[in-house]
Amino acid sequence: MTPESAFIEPTNTEAIRVIGRFEAGQGIPDAMRSDVRMLGALLGQVLREAGGDDLFDDVERLRLATIQAYEDATSDAFARATAIAESFTIARADEVARAFTCYFHLVNLAEEHQRVRVLRERAGQPGREDAADTVASAYARLRGEVGDDEALRRLRGLRFHPVFTAHPTEARRRAVSSSIRRLSDLLTQHDLASAEGAEQRRARRRMLEEIDTLWRTAPLRAEKPSPTDEVRTVMGIFDETLFTTVPHVYRRIDDALRGEESGASAPVVPAFVRVGSWVGGDRDGNPFVTAAVTREASQIAADHVLRGLERALDRIGRTLTLDADSTPPSAEVRALWEAFATSDPHAASELATRSPDEPHRRVLLLLSHRVAATRRGDEQGYARPEDLLADLRAVQESLLAAGARRHAFGGVQHLIWQVETYGFHLTELEVRQHSQVHAKALAELEAGAPLSAQTEEVLEVFRAVADIQRDRGLRAAGRYVVSFTQSATDLANVHALARHALGDDAPVLDVVPLFETFADLQAAPGILAEVVTFPEFRARMAETGNRLEVMLGYSDSSKDVGPVAANLALYEAQEKIALWAKDAGIELTLFHGRGGALGRGGGPANSAILAQPPHSVDGRFKLTEQGEVIFARYGEPAIAMRHIDQVAAATLLASSPTVEERTSSAARRYAEVAAVMDRASRDRFFSLVKAEGFAPWFATVTPMEEIGLLALGSRPARRGLSVESLEDLRAIPWVFAWTQARINLAGWFGLGTALDAVGDEALLIEAYREWPLLRTMIDNVAMSLAKTDERIAREYLALGDRDDLAALVLDELALTREWVVRLTGGEGLLENKPVLQRAVQLRSPYVDALSLLQLRALRALRAGDAQATGSGADAEQQRLLLLSVSGVAAGLQNTG
Fold first, then answer.
1. Is 167 one of the catalytic residues?
2. Fewest CB within 10 angstroms: 59, 550, 554, 837, which?
């Protein structure tokens, strides 16, 4: 292979020239370009070995054609690429789709590797680790604004609470993800080895083997995963990354804040991360999540965290080889050992033999022994995580009293942080259910009629929560999210059902309203003002220091009124709820139901936090993380550390006087602009989605129905209605389908009309510069538009035989693009964000190749040709379409 190209043969000089020029034009860093070329060359070798020269050549023909079509706006270039995609046999089209999907996985890996490389380089350069978006820099800025004492108080109250969900937007199989993770390790080994030395050659050979595995692994799941499968998939993130990474985040921040004193005295950084999970608890519209599944999800998570704590205690305990003469134990540590020796003399004798005259080592190993007993359910185990914390603090104080302060605040502090963050439950499991399910169950109970299976299951969930709280503490479960909250009664019903299930033994519940639609967001402050007068809410808030949690849904509000009006409505709802809570003396936590895609509240979280209304953050930020976003943000330790640091910094800074003043003054200054944009965008959105026949047209021009065939997740794509109605279509397939059609409508439709209605370009440029909400909205839309392709979008829209609706979409696309470029500056999209622009442009022609293959399959399915020739042909077309869906998701990344 030549250095100019990943796949192209040296004899094909024209192809080398075209592809080499394209790659050079993307401004790819040399190290990343080298990785892409090497990985692509290895993939090319695999394709030759597995499918012969013909497969290799076919992949190259389509790749070259899509690059030429990307660079050449003429219809001839696009027609050539389309003709190549159409010329393949169905079997060859399958293979080509798989080849491009593999290529995307490798490019994504190379890009992630480059991010890690940059983070490590920064960490090694004095001052570079103190970037503007770190907790350390945010704290320094806060001290300058509010003083040392207040800044420290806010730091100690900091809370970042991601909640992992099982929403089906991760198109990759777990086997594929595992293969990519192994490739990542090999790429690191390749970096560290001597150039062209034996270790580097060995790393390349093993990468070749791994890419061959990737190629030969079936890219599509044969069956939908069960909820328990989803639980185990998420557990992989904890085992491989989060359990060990989060304490390192705390340590890195403490290092930056305190320098040499870090690790030698008590840290100022609290354990500010709490991780929640809906996986195994979210039963809204998912009949497969039962009370038994919820119990099992909690048990699986507990097993993982207890094994992790056992290993960590054992690892750190083994290093604590401090003898009793140099580091005498406190009376409390001696008492811990004596009590253990009395209760389990055999185990104590073994530990004493392994750790002669090393009392602190011996006690940490006994704590590991007790955690193992906790996991097994033995009576020698701990009843609560607070008891383990007390023992660890006794060891810490003993070491400190003996003068071993660096051990006290080194490894032992690491353990304390882990227990404070994860307890014995790992994730705080949350239940979610639809308000109508509760109303129906309560009506049955109050009627005294025989109970349906659904109502019996509703009651059993409360018993499951009570059992989990008894076994693992209140933090293990207790938040109960009510979807489609439309009245205070919807929330009171949860407590009523809990009493029906268990009487006075009902579990402790924090009932969380979820306001999703435009109307519900507007009604939220009134509902909250009523619900806090209810006895159950008053009692729980009294126990928690007047705390209340409220969830806001980004997905359904966007599908309800369009992305522009939804963003404005969400801001207004947060503003009103925050002011109400402040006046009522309530400590409010707003829970943001954000998805990965821009149409579902996606985009950079830190910039979104800094655009929130005053008092709506106050040092606490909670959001959902799902699908491909979980693996992108938390799958690699260095990236996970950077993400947590960035989000925590924004959370700390959002409530600073300058940020709050900037946000509130901009909101007041541009209130009329917001009102005009709201009205115009909603009218434009309604002109599309409320047009006669829109729902079946949408299902025709996108692969929405076919996406439901992908075994992405356990939850159904719809709550039960047909494509004649969008009201009950879940927001995820709504967004995913538009993304696959390369239109991304859910992320931008209506913004062009909204900006045009304002009309004053100078005013809008000023607003973009000074109004954080508008800036975040425009920047996110720019990213969404950059991933559209008008030529391909036209081909999808042509499937629907509705020129009026197609024209409406294309006109709005052109208008929105025009306005976004005018406001952001330059001549094209993302020119003010060159790194992001490079990432999108690098992938675009390869995504085009998969889109052309998907269009081919979709045309055949829509035309009925496949059905006419038999179900076998129909199945082949569906398989090609689903393969291309997986590949496009890998290429575009934030899809759902």
1. yes
2. 837
